[in-house]
Amino acid sequence: MASTSRVPDDEGIDYTDIEEKYKVSYEDGFDNVLVIDNVPIVDSSKRDKLLTAITKKFTQKAAPIKPGKIHFPFDDKANKSKGYLFMEFKTNTEATYVASAMNGVQFDAKHTFLVNRFTDIEKFATLAEKYTEPEIPQYKPQEHLRWWLADGRDQFLTYRDQDVAINWHNKNTSDVQTQRKNWTDLFAAWSPLGTYLASLHRPGVRLWAGESWTGIARFAHPLVKLLDFSPCETYLVTWSQESISPTPGPPGPASFTEEDEGNNVAVWDVKTGHLLRTFHALPDLDAEGHAKKMSWPLLKWSPDDKYVARIQPGQQISVYELPGMGLLEKKSIKVDGVVDFDWCPSGDVDEEGKGKGSTKKARENFLAYWQPEIGDQPAKVTLLAIPSRTSLRTKNLFNVSDVDRFTKTKKSTYCNLEIVRTREKDFPVEVVEIKETVTDFAWEPRGERFVVVTSTDPNLGNIGPGITIRTDVFFYQLDKTGGLGTFKLLKKLMNKTANTMRWSPKGRHIVLATVGSSSKFDLEFWDLDFYAERDAPVVGKSATGGPKEREKDEWGSGAQLVATTEHYGVTDIEWDPSGRFVATSASVWRHTLENGYILWDFKGQELQRQILDKFKQFLWRPRPKTLLSKDQQRNIQRRLKEYSRVFDEEDAAEESSASKELVAHRKRLVDEWNAWRAKIKSERSEKKGKAKEDKFEIIEELVEVVLEETVEVLE
Fold it and tell me: How confident is the model at residue 124 (pLDDT cuts 50, 70, 90)?
C-alpha cells in the first residue's frame, strides 16, 4: 500500500482573539435607514448638483449627512431619478433625530421633504384592512409637587456620610419621611420655593419632587460643582470648573454644541430641560491684577425671572431677556470701572401691582451698581430701571476705593451707609455715619430695621488660628416721628465676639453667633419687640394708691436679650420658614469635632440635639408665598387663639405619645433586667442542688481567742 502524506490541519489553533479584533459589526435591522420622499426628479446631468443641494439643506437643519451615505435610485432607461432616496446613519438615535428634524421641511417652491423610517414603510404596507382601536393606557394621576404643604409641618434635610434623609419636624421630635443612600455625590440644594430637591453628580444635576421623590429632570453638565435657581424656580444655572465639550451624538435641545465649547456656565429651563445658553466664567481680578476668589452666583436674577444679568468687572453689565436669553436691546450697559451690582427685591406692594385686573402700573425692575473713584471723578452708586435703562438716581461717594475689603492701617476708618428710599419721589438718600469698620450688614425681613457689625480689633484682616475678633453690634430702626422719618440707633452691644447674624424670615427675632472661632461658640437670641404683645409697663402708683396711667416705652427698650447659650463647633445657622425654630449645625466639611445639629425655638430653648459622625449638611425646606389676601391674614391673626387650641392639642398628644414611648422603653429595660436576674438565680440554684448531692465530710474546728485579760487583786 502506497503511503500518503497529510498536511497538518489548523483545528487545534484558537483564532478567537484575531476574530474579535477584526470583527465586522452589522446592523440587526434597518431602523437606521430613512426614506426621503418628494425629492425633485432630475436627469443624470443634474444628479450631482441635486445631491449637493440636499446635503447642504440637511446640514443647515443640524442633520449633517455625507453624500456617500445617500443611495439615489435612478431609472437608467428613462434617464431620470425616481423621486425618492435612502439615507443611512450610524445609529437608530441619530436617524430618529434626523427624521423629526427634516420631516415637512420645504426644499424648494414645489417640493417638501417627507421622511419615514424604512421599517415604517414595510409596516404601513402590511397594515390590516380592518381597523383595530388602540388600547388606551390607564390614567395615572401625577403627584402634586407641593404636597407637603397640606401637612402643616415643616420639613428639613440632613446629609450624613452617604445618607440623605428628609424629615418631618415636630415640636420636640422628628420623623423620617424618606431616606436614601448615595442620593448625591457633592451636596443637596432646595429650590427657592421648596418645590424641587437638586442633587449633584458627576454627569450633571438631577431634580426630584413629589411625595415619592421621583426624578423629574436631568441636566447633563459633566463635573458640575455649583448650581443656582432663579427666584421663581423657572430656570437653573450650573457651573463646572472644567470647560464644556460638545455632547457626542446628534445635537438636541439639551445638548452642548461646538458653540458652547470652552464655556463653564450653563442656563437651563427647569420644566423642559432645554439648554438656553452658556457663558464663559470671566476671572475676577483685584486692583493688582491677581485673580480673586470666585463670587457665586455669577448670574444674578431679577425678582420676577424676566431678566438675568452678568458683570464684566471694570467694563460693562450685560442684561439678558428670558426665555430667549437674548441681550437686552442687543447691547450691554457700558460702565467704566464697575465693581458690583445687584437687583432690587420685590415686595408685597409690587406683587399687588402685577396681579390680574390690577389698574396699577407695574413698577420696572431696579438695578443698582457702583463705580470706584477714577481719576478726578468720585465714586458713584447708580440706580437704573430695567428694561427702559432710565437712570433714576446717582449718588457721588467721596474717599471710596473699595468695598468689602479691610486692610490694616494706622489711620482711622469711617463708614457711611447710603440708604436710598426706592418708594419715595425722587429717591431721597439718607446717610448713616458709623465711625468703625463695618464687617457685616443685614436688613430685617419685612421690617424697617437693620443690624451692623463693626470692629476696631487690630487683628482684623490678619486673622490667625486661635484669634477671636472683638466686635460691636448696632441695631438701627426707622423713626417715623417726623415726615419720612430717619434711621435712629436702637441698641448697641459693645465688646462682643459675634461675627454672624441671622434674622428670622418673619423679622423681629435675630440670632447673633460666633462662627469660625476655635475658642468661642456663643449664641445670643434677641427679640427686638419684646413688649409688642402687651401694653406699656406700669411705672408707678398714683396719689390715690391706684396704678398710674401706662406710659410709652422708651426708645430701644423693646430690644431684649432672650437667651444666651452655645453650640460647640457651630458652622451654620438657619431659620425655619415659619420663624419659630432655628437650627445650628457643625459640619464635617469645616471640622471633625462633635458634628451634628441642634434645634432651638425662637426663645433659645433647646428642643433636639443630634451628635452625628460625618454629618455634612442641614437644610430647612423653603415654603412658597401665601395665597391668602391681606384681609384673610388679618382675620387669622384676630382668631389666632381659637386656631391655636387645635395645635396645642396636637402638641399635647405628641408629648403624651412621646411619654408613652419612654414608659414602654423603661418597662422593657426593667423586664429584661428581671429576666436576667431570674436566669442567674436559676443557674445558681442548679449549682447548689448538685453540690448537695455530692458526698462530703464536715469537720468542725473550734478556735478560742483571748481578746483581753484583766488581773484584779482582791484584799
Answer: confident
pLDDT for residue 533: 61
**621 touches 630 (CB < 8 A):** no
Give the containing element (helix H, strand E) for 632. Answer: helix 630-638
Residue 448, C-beta contacts closer than 8 angstroms, at least 6 positions apart: 477, 478
Beta strands 114-117 and 606-611, pairing class: unpaired
pLDDT band for position 538 (50/70/90)? Answer: very low
C-beta pairs of 66-75 under 8 Å, 24+ apart in sequence: 72/47, 74/44, 74/47
With a pLDDT cut of 90, the percent of the chain lying above it is 39
How many residues belong to the chain?
715
Sheet with 379-386, edge to edge strand ranges = 340-343, 365-371, 379-386, 391-397
Q: Would you say 197 and 213 are in contact if contact means Cβ atoms under 8 Å apart?
A: yes
Burial of 235 (0-12, 13-18, 19+ CB in 10 A): buried
pLDDT at 45: 86
Backbone torsions φ then ψ of 391, nearest 5 degrees: -80, 115
- Which parts of 339-428 are beta strand (E)? 340-343, 365-371, 379-386, 391-397, 415-420
The CA distance from 438 to 405, in Å, is: 10
Q: Rounded to 5 degrees, what are φ and ψ at 329? A: 55, 20
Q: For residue range 426-435, list pLDDT tens digits in order.
A: 888 888 888 8
How many angstroms separate the CA atoms of 231 and 193, rounded?
A: 8
**Which pLDDT band, with edges at 50, 70 and 90, does 537 fall under?**
very low
CA distance 371 to 382: 9
The widest CA-to-CA distance across the chain, in whole angstroms, is: 171
Cell numbers that stand for 509 in this block? 427675632
Query: Edge-to-edge strands of the sheet including 84-88?
Result: 70-71, 84-88, 33-37, 114-117
What three-state secondary structure class fits 132? coil
Cell numbers linked to 481? 416721628
Angle at 326 between CA 320 and CA 331, to 5 degrees: 75
* Residue 693 confidence class, pLDDT cut points 50, 70, 90: low
Residue that the C-alpha cell 473699595 belongs to: 402
Q: Using DSSP, state whether 44 is helix, strand or coil.
A: helix
DSSP E strands, 128-181: 154-160, 163-169, 174-181
| Structure letter (DSSP) for residue 699 | -
Q: For position 604, what pLDDT does the model report?
A: 94
- Containing 503, the helix (H) or strand (E) segment is strand 500-503
Q: What pLDDT is recorded for position 30?
A: 77
CB atoms closer than 10 angstroms to residue 137: 6
Residue 213 vs residue 648, higher pLDDT: 213
Q: Kindly provide the b/e burial profile for residues 43-60, where b requires at least 16 CB atoms within 10 angstroms of the residue's own CB.
A: eeeeeeebeeebbebbee
Cell 470583527 belongs to residue: 23
Lowest mean pLDDT among 178-192, 267-281, 647-661: 647-661
Which cell is 611 given?
451628635
Q: Which of the residue ranges 127-131, 164-168, 495-499, 633-637 has the most confident prediction, judged by mean pLDDT?
A: 164-168
What is the CB neighbour count within 10 angstroms for residue 585?
25
**Considering just the CA atoms, what is the radius of gyration of the chain in Å?**
39
Question: Is this model's pTM higher than 0.85 or not?
Answer: no
Only one residue has cell 451624538, namely 249
Three-class secondary structure of residue 505 per DSSP: coil
